[in-house]
Amino acid sequence: MPNAYDYATQHADRFKDQLIELLRVPSISTLDAHADDVRAAADWIIADMQRIGLENVRKIEHDTYLPLVYGEYNGAGPDAATVLVYCHYDVQPAEMADGWTSDPFTPVERDGKVYARGALDSKVHVIAQLKAIESMLAAEGGLPVNVKVLFEGEEESGSEHIFGFVPENLDLLAADTVVVSDGSMPDPAQPILVYGLRGLVTMRLTVTGPQRDLHSGHYGGNVHNPIQALAEIIAQLHDADGHVTVPGFYDDVRPLSESERALLAGVEPWVKAEWQSLANAPQIWGEPDYSMSERMGARPTLEINGIGGGFYGDGFKTVLPHRAGANISCRLVPDQNPAKILAALDAYIQHLTPPTVTATLTETEAGAPGILIDRESAPVQAASRAYEAAWEVKPIFSREGGSVPIVAAFQQQMQVPVVLMPFGYKGGGAHGPDEYVPVDLLHKGISAAMTFYREYAALAQQA
Amino acid sequence: MPNAYDYATQHADRFKDQLIELLRVPSISTLDAHADDVRAAADWIIADMQRIGLENVRKIEHDTYLPLVYGEYNGAGPDAATVLVYCHYDVQPAEMADGWTSDPFTPVERDGKVYARGALDSKVHVIAQLKAIESMLAAEGGLPVNVKVLFEGEEESGSEHIFGFVPENLDLLAADTVVVSDGSMPDPAQPILVYGLRGLVTMRLTVTGPQRDLHSGHYGGNVHNPIQALAEIIAQLHDADGHVTVPGFYDDVRPLSESERALLAGVEPWVKAEWQSLANAPQIWGEPDYSMSERMGARPTLEINGIGGGFYGDGFKTVLPHRAGANISCRLVPDQNPAKILAALDAYIQHLTPPTVTATLTETEAGAPGILIDRESAPVQAASRAYEAAWEVKPIFSREGGSVPIVAAFQQQMQVPVVLMPFGYKGGGAHGPDEYVPVDLLHKGISAAMTFYREYAALAQQA
Questions:
Q1: Are residues A128 and A28 in the same domain?
Q2: Of the candidates A334, A363, A392, which is a domain's last residue?
Q3: Which helix (H) or strand (E) holds B311?
Q4: Interatomic CA distance for residues B28 and B100, integer angstroms
Q5: Which residues contact B79 (CB under 8 A, 6 or more apart)?
Q6: Mutating which of A205, A211, A219, A293 best tests the B interface, going by the most B Cβ atoms within 10 A?
Q7: In chain B, whose CA is at the least distance from the CA of A353?
Q8: Are residues A57 and A99 in the same domain?
Q9: Which residues contact B271 (CB under 8 A, 6 or more apart)?
Q10: In a domain? residue B293
Q11: What is the DSSP pairing of strand B199-208 with strand B358-363?
Q12: Is 90 exceeded by the pLDDT of residue A116?
């Protein structure tokens, strides 16, 4: 039987050309003027899905939103496991004026990198996943698992519909695991397995003092300035070591085991290097009893995202304002509960608020809990082996600080293990000018995707 | 010899009508479209000055600014004292849409009050001062002092030129005392003598952390948020009792004598009542070892006038901002030095700033020191007697919390005692809709202005 890896090697140039072809379509989902381009990209994918032999291929469309693209392979039979693969094919806007060296929608290859908007985020994933399936079907006649492919066309514009679509289509999407193929690794030679994501609760704190804005000459000295009162409250939300002081805040935080700490130590150099290059504040700050990678992924935070009050434009007004406020968010980790955290913060702020002002805390959007993916689960183990085979280095395991809402949606709605499989590179500048993907990562991604199916099939069979 | 007070009583209706006539001229100095109206008001005043017999009457004009109006009475002879009287005749804008019951430039008398823009601020002072001179000249043939009258036409628009005009015209303006006739009393039946004004220094504090705005998910927990750091600095600028904690801040504050504390106790009920009606915060705040009137006028403050950082508009952005800042001002009392206070605050803020961020403090405008007027000086004693004679109640003595820059300019440039003589009423709503002045205050003001000249002449002769 011919070998799928050999097939992928033989067709490597065509695969790259197909990536370039798809990158020519400016599928910008955030600009209405490009809606037809998003649909054209969907059509391109559908044609390729049909060509490589996927079944039940369709564009899931609605007047008001950009299409989801769906296709499936059922050849492994009803007893085999099923994998749902998610990618997105829409992109951020891009213009030469943003600082591009060459036109963002005329892909150019330089020094083994393909430069174009969407190269990294996230069309390399779309092509890698499709070409892995193509290689196995063409060279070996089938895959050891059934596959469902779901590509989104409005990830960059807020994913307005997929969060409703998933729970309404659980039968269609039914699978034993979900592969979310998106994101980046810290170095092209170092793959990463993200097994934790933080949740989020966002709030607005408003402090009110006098009934109206006052003249700071007439009233200064006799009124507790709401900006000062707000600052005094905010200053009490962390201790000198950077711990959050809200009573109960850490009660439900799942402690880190020694083995997990050892695991996260592997990602520490990458986290530190990225901090130095991008944040580069005068000094690193954080809870001294945790490493940077632990503080990023395994510890909750309380952050002031915005503050406002009085007059802070050009010039100066000697106003004593009647109100000041701040936007506050907490990044959450398992097993913190967003509603419980909001209530704890509210109670503490009321406790801290002096009788000279009033304070109100309101949630601004629905909160989301943090997520942990079982590192011992079959899909994570299969992904780990797949990365190691393709990159010839073990992947590092990491917990990321941000949230990927689609991961939570799949996990919660489908109740199956999810695995993140990024083939991008952080240095490739997603959302910025001169976005690129190393061509190498496309090919390693195809190889890893194929190995994942084999390894997962083997592990699923054992189970 | 006929009596000037009787003359004023006989002509009371005409005087009120003249006030109403002047109020019909919309001398709005803040709107270019009304520049000719400001000049028309100046012409009206000049005509009246000439009619009542002032000499050397002139409009001091320049292409680029609204006129000063000047006139003098030299009949008391070269050995008599000279009084310079300052008022302003320009007004704030006003429109029916702001909530006026009747047209702001069609004066209406209701319940013994004249409603019109500028009635209180400050045309009642212009007319009272002119009619006092007229009454003495017409009924008694002269005044016991020489008088120079200087009326400003751009007080409401920033007094762009008078601060240059005074030092350049010290010979023209030379006098033994300056009466600044503007402002309000807390009750129409309770005149007030303001003998202290606070100075001001204004600053901007900027706190910078990372080199760019960051994603609060990726970096939250490893970066000292500049908004948090700013709040932590601000929170340390006052102690729990409301004292400013900046080392050296109070070093030069002139202590209050027991007699001055007793004097200021007289104004305390008015300060408290105004606070309740206008500020009305949940609770009074301030240094517990001082009364409200002392805290308003005799104690310096450190106020946060504005704050900004991150995202604080509609909605929410989970940004970890690279910078945050605050506008800060200090109200100063004698003998604090603005430059010294700025330096002390800067040093303290640098001391408070942790190594995780940088902080810079810059002055935004030139600072001004606080002012104290000698309560025992002849003009203040004369004003006190004049108020008591006209109102049949002793004036209360007060130190105001704000600044009146023209008082500082006269005091510093001319090196003579200044006295503030307000005939307005705080409840009359200067700058707001339905501004009014009780007619009664016009007539008492005329009477007090006349008595002031007599009393001051007598005291000046004794000296």
A1: yes
A2: A363
A3: none
A4: 17
A5: none
A6: A219
A7: B282
A8: yes
A9: A222, B292, B293, B296, B398
A10: no
A11: antiparallel
A12: yes
Q: Report which of residues B429 and A153 the model is more confident about.
A: A153
Residues of B in contact with A299 (CB under 8 A): 221
Residue of chain A minimizing CA distance to B399: A218
DSSP state of B206: E
Domain-ending residue, one of B332, B363, B394: B363
Q: In this predicted model, what pLDDT tens digit does every residue of B273-283 receive, in sequence order? A: 999 999 999 99
Domain containing B122: what range?
4-196+370-462
Shared-domain flag, residues B111 and B158: yes
Which of A217, A237, A307 shows the shortest C-beta gap to B308? A307
| B391, B449 Cβ separation under 8 angstroms | no
A216–B301 CB contact, under 8 Å: yes
* Domain annotation covers residue B11: yes
Q: Is residue B348 part of a domain?
A: yes
Best of B213, B222, B289, B426 to mutate (most A CBs within 10 Å, chain A): B222
* Cross-chain residue pair B307–A312, CB shorter than 8 Å: yes
- State the smallest CA–CA distance between residue A360 and chain B in angstroms: 14
| Cβ-contact B142, B76 below 8 angstroms | yes
Q: Which pLDDT does position A159 carry in this prediction? A: 87
CA distance B189 to chain A (A): 21
B95 in a structural domain: yes
Contact B26, B91 (CB under 8 A): yes
CATH number for the domain spanning B340: value is 3.30.70.360
Give A174-188 pLDDT, tens digit per residue. Answer: 999 999 999 999 999
Structure tokens at A352: 């801290």
Taking CB atoms and an 8 Å cutoff, what residues of chain A touch B355?
282-283
CA separation for the pair B325, A314 (Å, rounded): 12
Residues in chain A within 8 Å Cβ distance of B234: 227-228, 231-232, 235
Phi, psi of B235 (to 5 degrees): -65, -20
> A312–B324: do the CB atoms touch at under 8 Å?
no
Is the predicted pLDDT of residue A2 greater than 80, yes or no?
no
Residue B205, pLDDT score: 98
Residues of chain A neighbouring B316 (CB-CB closer than 8 A): 202, 204, 305, 327, 329, 364-365
Cβ-Cβ pairs closer than 8 A, A with B, add up to 297
Q: CA B339, CA B248: separation in Å to the nearest integer?
A: 13
Do B234 and B245 form a contact (C-beta atoms < 8 A)?
A: no
| Same domain membership, residue B238 and residue B122 | no
pLDDT per residue as tens digits for the range B15-72: 999 999 999 999 999 999 999 999 999 999 999 999 999 999 999 987 767 899 999 9
Largest CA distance in chain B: 90
Q: How many domains does chain B have?
A: 2
pLDDT digits (tens, 9 = 90+) for A185-216: 999 999 999 999 999 999 999 999 999 999 99
Q: Clarify whether residues A233 and A244 are in a common domain.
A: yes
